């Protein structure tokens, strides 16, 4: 335990002044309406019709403001929300009028893919603390989307959170109707039910030639926070107690085939069948225990590929596994990512407790890991190393709310086996001076003992310990924003359960911008500029990088948004400095109702990291989404890039294609085809060392899914992979997998 004591001594002193300075501020008064939630002991048939007679007694909430593109404008169309509860469920109905229903944009969609459709939403802050909340979205055909969000320093959404709730929608002759049924067991809120007050907003997104948003709340753009402007909802005294227990058994079966030689014959693998069990127990309404035994953490959905050519840092992938996603926000800190759960690859067991009582939020997680990887960072790059040993991982988080918006928290992570450990201890917080100005800070310290394997094969020291510091100030107003931040990440800093791809640097960053708003009928409805300067040094004081960048942004007709920017970067790499000048354009638009386009294009000088030389790079990344009809959708992404050296020789040409085709039989049943192809052609003559000139990778996946909800589902699928290098004349498959998965959520 001596290393823990060393960390505490290092971290307490520099954070004490910040913690005692986090005093509350006096918020401006807003015109907040208060609604009393109707109590009706009747359920509904969730069919998107709203034909039950008791809907007329529900609490009516009109959406009387248009917030985009006009601030506090008059809505183009009428929308009314109706809400009530029966003690067990929260019921929400929307009647969304439309002058031309043929222009309604909606399709049968998978969960959390409806964002470009017409949709309505409920946003609730169940703790009424103006910090965290829930979002529930439904499109006109009943497709669902849900998210957790935080509003501590900025509005940040997490669409990976999935609750079990019901929804339906119907397009009518004069618009559409949506119904939601949300169980109170899916939400977390204070235990004192009789005195509950929630902050809430109801929303309608109305995409036409421009993107309109309507709400019951008229938001003031001069105020940084959103939750603090929400209306209030009372009337929860009739909520009934429930066991709030969910058991989800899971059964998976797969057969993985490989080839001993390529090309060659397939070697059929054995059928591997595994059963697992997940438990979610709401001990109280504000505290939840998650446990898992032999969990199915197989990756059913293929990750989107990213070109990793000519980069020195590891690629970040989002978490998708249910055990880690539930309550994940309780482990978030203000500046550093101390818990990146995809570092836990193959656990046998997992246990997690998360909750909030009054101003106190807390989280604890334990998991073992049969396949342990660690991220080894420097200020020049990073890569993963596999320990090939089982480890145990623990993470703990506590946060205290100070005043209306301030916070202070402490977090620790620990990972160990017989000859290895990594421990992190951190203090972080936020302080709001007023409704526009805020400060966030974090201090962390680490202590690491590396295994002999890491010492021998990766050249790291046996013992490592160091600190990290980060502080950021932002001022956000209606027409402008300014910010300043400072980071100091020690050379020996390691956060093995987190994600810290770069260390051994000290950085100062200053930036800001200005925005102008115009009428919805104008060709350009909003335009802005932003500029930024940053400078980075190594811990020994040597300059690593200085960068100036700026960009202009335009919003307008056809839901268009265009960003045009320029970057000047002086970067130190492999013992010398390289001046790089890069211009880029990023934009998207929807020319017709069912098709949208995105494009990123970049041209300029770029370091060739393999050869430590300056080159000229071109990068073009188009993307298209086409809703052929309610059932068929196609997504196509392509990335094309090349790099020429100073002798005008082609160093490499890279292509990456990701094609996804969806067929929705109905809202629950879907067939999906994924085709991915990566082709990197390298010029051996342009490299200082021998390289494979042909580098092609192929992957495909065909999956049928039937989803009653996020936890009750069935998958049946096939996937394969292949490659080609200089030793192969053709692209050859070398892996194939047949798999099925079945899980059912028992709610007790």
Task: Tell me what the structure shows.
The chain has 3 helices and 43 strands. Among the domains are: 31-234, Immunoglobulin-like (Sandwich); 311-503, no CATH class. Mean pLDDT is 90; it is low at 1-28. The strands form 4 sheets. The protein has a 24-stranded antiparallel barrel. Strands 1, 4, 7, 8, 9, 10, 13, 14 and 15 form a 9-stranded mixed sheet that branches. A hairpin with a 5-residue loop joins β8 (132-138) and β9 (144-150).
Keywords:
748 residues, nine-stranded mixed beta sheet, 4% helix, Immunoglobulin-like, globular, mainly beta
What is the number of helices? 3
On the 0-100 scale, what is the average pLDDT? 90
Question: What does the overall shape look like?
Answer: globular
Main pleated-sheet profile: 24 strands, antiparallel, barrel
- Gyration radius, to the nearest Å? 27 Å
Structural class: mainly beta
Subunit arrangement of the protein? single chain
CATH second-level architecture of one domain: Sandwich
Q: What is the helical fraction, as a range of percent?
A: under 10%
Give start-end ranges of low-pLDDT stretches. 1-28
CATH topology of one domain: Immunoglobulin-like
CATH level-1 class of one domain: Mainly Beta
Number of DSSP strand runs: 43
- Report how far apart the termini are: 42 Å
Strand content range? over 45%
């Amino acid at each position: 335990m001596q290393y823990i004591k060393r960390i505490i001594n290092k971290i307490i002193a520099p954070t004490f002044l910040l913690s005692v300075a986090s005093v509350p501020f006096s918020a401006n008064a807003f015109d907040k309406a208060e609604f009393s939630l109707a109590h009706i002991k009747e359920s509904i048939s969730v069919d998107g019709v709203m034909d039950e007679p008791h809907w007329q007694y529900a609490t009516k909430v009109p959406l009387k403001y248009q917030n985009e593109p006009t601030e506090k404008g008059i809505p183009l169309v009428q929308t009314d929300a109706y809400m009530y509860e029966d003690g067990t469920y929260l019921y929400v109905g929307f009647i969304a009028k439309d002058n031309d229903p043929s222009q309604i944009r909606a399709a049968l969609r998978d969960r959390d893919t409806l964002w470009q459709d017409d949709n309505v939403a409920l946003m609730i802050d169940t703790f009424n603390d103006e910090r965290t909340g829930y979002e529930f979205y439904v499109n006109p055909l009943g497709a669902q989307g849900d998210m957790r969000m935080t509003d501590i320093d900025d509005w940040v959404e997490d669409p990976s959170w999935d609750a079990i709730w019901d929804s339906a929608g119907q397009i009518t002759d004069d618009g559409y109707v949506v119904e939601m049924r949300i169980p109170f067991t899916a939400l977390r809120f204070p235990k004192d039910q009789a005195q509950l007050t929630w902050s809430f907003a109801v929303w309608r997104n109305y995409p036409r030639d421009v993107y309109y948003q309507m709400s019951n709340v008229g938001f003031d753009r001069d105020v940084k926070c959103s939750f603090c402007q929400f209306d209030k909802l009372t009337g929860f005294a009739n909520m009934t107690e429930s066991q709030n227990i969910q058991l989800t058994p899971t059964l998976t079966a797969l057969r993985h085939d490989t080839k001993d030689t390529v090309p060659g014959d397939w070697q059929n693998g054995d059928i591997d069948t595994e059963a697992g069990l997940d438990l979610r127990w709401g001990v109280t309404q504000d505290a939840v225990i998650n446990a898992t035994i032999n969990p199915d953490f197989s990756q059913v959905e293929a990750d989107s590929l990213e070109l990793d050519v000519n980069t020195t840092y590891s690629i970040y992938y989002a978490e998708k596994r249910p055990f880690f996603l539930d309550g994940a926000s309780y482990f978030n800190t203000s500046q550093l990512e101390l818990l990146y759960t995809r570092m836990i690859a193959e656990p046998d067991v997992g246990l997690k407790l998360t909750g909030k009582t009054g101003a106190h939020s807390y989280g604890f997680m334990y998991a073992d890991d049969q396949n342990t990887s660690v991220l080894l960072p420097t200020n020049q790059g990073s890569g993963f190393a596999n320990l090939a040993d089982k480890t145990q991982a623990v993470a703990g988080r506590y946060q205290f709310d100070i005043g209306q918006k301030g916070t202070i928290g402490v977090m620790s992570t620990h990972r160990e086996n017989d000859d290895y450990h990594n421990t992190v201890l951190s203090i972080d917080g936020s302080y709001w001076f007023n409704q526009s100005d805020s400060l966030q800070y974090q201090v962390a310290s680490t202590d690491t003992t590396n295994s002999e394997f890491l010492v021998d094969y990766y050249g790291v020291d046996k013992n490592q310990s160091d600190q990290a510091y980060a502080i950021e100030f932002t001022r956000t107003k209606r027409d402008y924003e300014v910010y300043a931040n400072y980071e100091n990440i020690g050379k020996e800093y390691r956060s093995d359960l987190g994600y810290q791809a770069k260390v051994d640097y000290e950085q100062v960053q200053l930036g800001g911008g200005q925005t102008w708003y115009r009428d919805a009928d104008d060709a350009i409805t909003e335009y802005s500029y932003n500029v930024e300067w940053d400078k980075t040094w190594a811990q020994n004081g040597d300059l690593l990088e200085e960068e100036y960048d700026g960009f202009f942004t335009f919003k307008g007709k056809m839901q268009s948004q265009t960003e045009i920017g320029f970057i000047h970067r002086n970067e130190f790499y492999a013992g010398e400095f390289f001046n790089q000048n890069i211009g880029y354009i990023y934009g998207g638009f929807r020319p017709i109702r069912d098709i949208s386009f995105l494009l990123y294009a970049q041209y300029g000088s770029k370091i060739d990291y393999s050869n430590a030389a300056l080159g000229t790079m071109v990068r073009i990344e188009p993307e298209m989404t086409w809703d052929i009809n309610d059932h068929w959708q196609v997504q196509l992404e392509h990335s094309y890039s090349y790099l020429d050296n100073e002798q005008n020789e082609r160093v490499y040409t890279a292509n990456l294609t990701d094609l996804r085709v969806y067929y929705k039989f109905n809202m629950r049943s879907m067939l999906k085809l994924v085709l991915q192809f990566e082709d990197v052609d390298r010029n051996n003559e342009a490299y200082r060392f021998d390289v494979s000139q042909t580098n092609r990778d192929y992957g495909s996946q065909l999956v049928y899914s039937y989803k009653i909800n996020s936890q009750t589902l069935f998958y049946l699928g096939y996937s394969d992979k292949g490659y080609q290098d200089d030793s192969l004349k053709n692209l050859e498959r070398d892996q194939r997998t047949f798999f099925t998965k079945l899980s059912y959520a028992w709610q007790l």
